[in-house]
Amino acid sequence: MYGFTIKVQGSFDDVVQRTTEALKEEGFGVLTEIDVQGTLKKKLEIDRAPYKILGACNPQLANQAIELEPDIGLLLPCNVIVREEKDGMVVGFMDPMTVLGLVERPELEELGREVRSRMERVRDSLTT
Prior knowledge:
Blueprint: E1 3-8, H1 12-25, E2 29-35, H2 36-44, E3 51-57, H3 59-68, E4 78-85, E5 88-94, H4 96-101, H5 106-125
Antiparallel strand pairs: 1-5, 2-3, 3-4, 4-5
C-alpha cells in the first residue's frame, strides 16, 4: 500500500487550510501546491471536482534522509492530496515507509516510521 486516506467534512478550501495547519503542527511546511482541477481545466478543458496536491516537507527530517542517501530527493517531498467526493472531502497521505523502503536501508526505514507517525497524527487531528 502506498498511502492512507481519511474522509473529512467541510468545504474544500477549509479542508485544505486545516490540513496545511495540521502539517505545520507536525513540523511540515507545504513547499508546493498543485491545483489539479485548475490545471486540467486550463490545459485540457476537463472539468473535474476540486483536487489539490500538497508537497509537504519537514526540513529536519528531509535533511536526515539526504545525509543518509543523497539521491533520496527523488522521493521527496511527502505528497498529501485533498480531493472532493460526492459525500465529503478525502485527504490522502503518501506512506513514507513504503517510499523510503524502496531504498532498502534500515536507517531510512526507521526515518520512514517517524515520518509516517507524524502523518498519522496529522490525519487523526483532522477528525476533531
